[in-house]
Amino acid sequence: MSVSANKVVHPQTNSVLAGLEPAVFFGFFEELSAIPRGSYNEKQVSDHIANFARARGLEVYQDEIWNLLIKKAGTPGYENAPTLILHGHTDIVCESDEGVEHDFENEGIKLRLDGDFIHGTGTTLGADNTVGVAFAMSLLASDDIPHPPLEVVLTVQEEVGKGGAQHFDGTKLTGKRLLDMNWHDPKSLFAGCAGDISAHFRIPLQWSERPNGQEAARLRVSGLSSGHSEFDIHLERANAIVLLGRLLRLAIKEGDISIAKLEGGVNRYVIPGEAEALISFDRSVSGALRSKIEAEAAAIAAEYSTSDPNLKITFEEDPGLFFSVFSEKVATGAVNAMCLLPNGVQSRSLIVDNLVESSNTVALISNDQERIEITSTIPSAVSSRRYNIVDRIRQLSEVIGLGASVETFADCPEWPYNPQSRMLAAGRAAYEREFGEQPHVEVSHSSLELGLFRKKVPDIDMLSIGPEAFDVHTTRERLNHTTVEATWRLLKALLSELRT
Ligand SMILES: [Zn+2]
């Protein structure tokens, strides 16, 4: 059975999106939104789409973690055109506002329409990437849109380290061109991204007995602007772990302090906005130590007055009882690592204006009884630069000694910007044909799933498009439904360009 993409194909009771155009897209968007589909919970949505495709006589491959590959032949005149891979991901980020009880395991998203925007109700919307899946289903359901042979790949676990794309069997693909539909700006084409890798820097802990009669304090850096470690790195914001390291070095030099605990950061993709240390020191140095830290804090506040106007450094006495502290050598080694690990922008692109090419964010610090662990995330558009930064981190562990070691994980390749790309040329031509002007071309310092497809399909040529969405991954996530029509037109025009 096939249906026309120009008709309302999913009349729904209690539909929130009825009446929005293109109706076929919003029908699928609403249908998908009703299915719970957080990361690792994609079986139901995967089965739903597989059944939808089988009902249309399409070839479906579903792997054991519920990634999908659906094949559809080219339309008349496009039978022998180069195959196009269409890509989106089925999982969504599940966040809810404080006080909102939402059972993401079993409940779909309650859509809410407010002017030009579709929102969730106290939750993420999941437009990232329901949009891509709904466009793919709209094309699979169509019989009047010219397109080349399609291989629709819908991955799972994108939001939790790109697990679906890592797992997906690339040998099932014959296409060498890929169109992704997880971009958030209808006025631009997305044409390249960085890869990234993360690294744990570990120092085994040796403990000493805390000297009797010492005073203690919690030294705390907070109120920083924080932000995403890849999208916001060019803003030169302060890093709470690095600043804490700077203050601790001063405290060791001036006050001979010991350290009992280190803690900071949220996750490996967030510039840490808070970090703190529990410290112990002799009563006799207390006053001098406090005034040295206050003077340094004032200098730091002035340095970061533009990027981090709410930065706060506090020295709270009486943080509670403790009896052991890090050995002197380990404390010095840890503070050296906090200060000397590469951090922030490392290089900028000379091809794309205002693009950071390589960076590092010292994102997390913690300790347990056994060790101190500092986690960095290193995005770069150039693999060799990414691995060179990792090697410098390793070199630092060798210089520090004390059994320090580095373990890397989550290595994801880049998708390098190629001004000669056929997909980019077709995207530009389609955009100009539809809208009478040139699109912007965007390249990002963030690492996307698409990098992994380069590893699976060498020489793959990729492009990404999408309607306007804001604040994805947060409960403020919203989709501007008035921009979907333009993206749908661009998508159809682009498909018709890809006859050769
Ligand atoms: Zn996302």
From TrEMBL:
The Peptidase M20 dimerisation domain, residue ranges: 222-303
Protein name: Cytosol non-specific dipeptidase
EC code: 3.4.13.18
Pfam families: M20_dimer, Peptidase_M20
SUPFAM superfamilies for this protein: Zn-dependent exopeptidases (SSF53187)
Cofactor: Co(2+); Zn(2+)
Taxonomic placement: Bacteria, Pseudomonadati, Pseudomonadota, Alphaproteobacteria, Hyphomicrobiales
GO terms of molecular function: metal ion binding; metallodipeptidase activity
Stored InterPro entries: Peptidase_M20, Peptidase_M20_dimer, Peptidase_M20C
Leader sequence segment: none
Annotated source species: Rhizobium leucaenae
Positions in coiled-coil regions: none
Sequence similarity: Belongs to the peptidase M20C family.
The protein's enzyme class: hydrolase
